[in-house]
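Pasting two entries for a bug report.
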Amino acid sequence: MKTTTSKGQVFEASRALVSVRDSNRLMMDVMDARSISEVAADFEGVETLTQEDAQHVEHAYRGFTELAAISRNDSDGSLRITMKKPKHKEG
């Protein structure tokens, strides 16, 4: 799936899903050979993630603006990226 950030960066994601246990988290696996810190910078502060599936249907994920985690899968080099929705402060 083609994944585009609100910053205009485009990634090829093998999958993306909202966590069943925590609907405030979105996880995706992307292929990117750059360093983790470079990829992380592309996801910091995004407002929207848009994905286009094989049937050219677009899915928008809004509110997942904070990078929660990023790690590399040693077996295939893909990156697991977890975005989260920020907690609203009371007050």
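Entry 2 (this is the one that rendered wrong in the viewer):
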Amino acid sequence: MKAMLLSDLIVMRRSLVSLVAACFLAATIMTVASDSSLAFVGGCFGAMIPLLYLMSVAAYDELSNWQVYRLTLPMSRKNAVVGRYASVFLVVLASAVLGVIASYAVGAVVGILAPAFAAGSGSAGESPLSTLVLSANPADLIWGSAIGGASGALFLGAITLPVVARFGLRKGTRFIPIVGVLFAVFAITLFKDGGPLSGFAPEMVRSLLSGGSEFALVAVLAAVSLILYAISLPISIRLYSTREF
């Protein structure tokens, strides 16, 4: 597992640097242009980087034929799958932390530049960037957006990795949307009116959101994503063990 983990991170190290830089640039431009809050920065980092990493490392396996050569090494298929899951999980964690750091960095820079913008606009009211200063973005918003984005990436990874383990990325792209749709249909069936969990989810969401506990909702989403990610691991191990190259 350790060999696979290090292999993924070493192979993708340059791509990860490019992903972080591109994500920071895109998130900063979109945040300043929308003038809403710093939530977009953390969410962008938490979601975009892990998903792009997952697709990139899976594509590299096929383009370089590394996945076939890997089977000749003293590494079991189980360790290969576990190492891939570990590398994706580490990237998810690192992306969430980077999202928080980037949010505070953007907020600090805007806080320095906001008075100049206000003076330049000649308006006696608030600065055009007043919604992006740190005082207008509490810590639970910044952390919640980063963790929420990372939870979404982990959730999609739990669906994508088993399909890629069985079919590879090129063939798997045909089945990933189908799996996502089937999962959505299953969830709607459970939680719709008359479904077995129809009364549970709305009440749970209302109770979490009451009193401004949005961060508690994010924590629940993170826990659900972690559980699904853990469940998908043995499924991927089983599917990869029967895959033929």
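Dev reply: Rendering is fixed now. As a check, the viewer should reflect this: The radius of gyration is 21 Å.
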